[in-house]
Amino acid sequence: MKAYMYSTLNKQHSTLNYAMMCRLTSVVLLLIVMMQEGIAQDVKGIRVHGFLSQGYLKSTGNNDVFGNSSGNGSFDFREIGANASYRPLPNLQFSGQLLSRSAGEDSKGGIRIDYGFVDYTAISTESMDFGIRLGRTKNPLGFYNDTRDVPFTRPSILLPQSIYFDRTRNLGLASDGVQLYGESRNSWGDLNAQFGVVFPQAGDRSTEFAILQADRPGSITPHLSYIGRLIYEYDGGRVRFALSGAQVNTGYNAAQQNDTYSGLGTFQFTPIIFSAQYNSERWSLTSEYAIRHIERQDFVARPDLNFTGESYYFQGIYRFSPSWEGVLRYDAYYADRTDRDGKQFLIDNKIPPELQGNIPAHSRFAKDITVGLRWNVTPSIMLRAEYHYINGTGWISSLDNRAPNATLQRFLPANTDQHWNLFAFQASYRF
Amino acid sequence: MVARNRFNYCYRIVSLFFFVFGVSYFATHTYANDSVEAVIHPSVELKSYSRNSLRAAFGMRLKTWPNGMPVRVFVMPDDAVLHTIFTKEKLNIFPYQLRAGWDKLIFSGTGQAPFLVRTEEEMRERISSTPGAIGYLKRANIDESIHVLNIE
Question: Which candidate from B91, B94, B103 shows the least CB-CB separation from A281?
Answer without folding.
Answer: B94
